[in-house]
Amino acid sequence: MRSGPVSQFKSVQHAAPISAAQPALSSTSRLEQALPLLFLLIATGMALVLHRFLPSLSGLPAMLFIGSVIATALCSSTRWIIATIAIGAVALNVVFPVVPHNLPASLLLIIRTAGFTVIAGSLAYLAMKSRISLLGDHRAAKSIEQVLRERENAWTVTELSTLFQIPYQDFYELVDRGEIEAFGPIGALRICPREIERWYQTTIRKRVQ
Questions:
Q1: Where in the chain is the domain with CATH 1.10.10?
Q2: pLDDT of the residue at 58
Q3: The domain at 3-14+143-208 falls in which architecture?
Q4: H/E element holding 3?
């Protein structure tokens, strides 16, 4: 590989807090996975206990599950917020089934699920925006290595050019020389996340050090 792209990448590499950020980011990632489940378990437990002693408050379980979604939004990422809303809606309807009155149970189930999703999603969005405005988004401080490791979908050349601050033509040249494996037609190439991670570790990372 030519020296040009590597020298262009050095400024980005030095700006990213790699070695110092990895333990903190790993701990944060594990915390994001554990807290939503914990919040849901707490909400379910409290709802069961309170529903037993205060059966007249029929909306209390939903409020507790919405609280678990808001708590998730204050300390976790978007995908976990969505997962918490989905699991909360299912748990709400399974643990506390709808009691039909004048309307069919299926219609009440739809109304209850839709209402829960809209209210929980709206409040979670507001909570997440408030968290980011007050504390900032920790994802903005991720290192290049962290971004590459967490990527699941195929990369486009444009995305890689932005990430590494390297002209996109250089990536096409790397593909032509066989240094990076890609698939798809010219102009719409896709590159496997693990392939870019391998190339970064064996080429860019090694030369910058």
A1: 3-14+143-208
A2: 63
A3: Orthogonal Bundle (1.10)
A4: helix 3-15
Q: Which amino acid is at 159?
A: E
Residue closest to 71 by CA, chosen among 39, 47, 46: 39
Q: For residues 29 and 77, what is the distance between their CA atoms, to the nearest angstrom?
A: 9
**Range in 8-12, 82-86, 182-186 with the lowest mean pLDDT:** 8-12
Q: How far apart are the first and last CA of the chain?
A: 16
- CB 139 within 8 Å of CB 87: no
Q: What percent of the chain clears pLDDT 70, i.e. is strictly above it?
A: 73
Angstrom distance (rounded) from CA 177 to CA 71: 50
Q: What is the pLDDT of residue 205?
A: 64
Residue 202, C-beta contacts closer than 8 angstroms, at least 6 positions apart: none
pLDDT digits (tens, 9 = 90+) for 28-39: 556 666 778 788
Q: Is 165 left (phi over 0), alpha (psi -120 to 50) or beta?
A: left
**Which secondary structure element, helix H or strand E, spans residue 155, and what is its range?**
strand 155-156
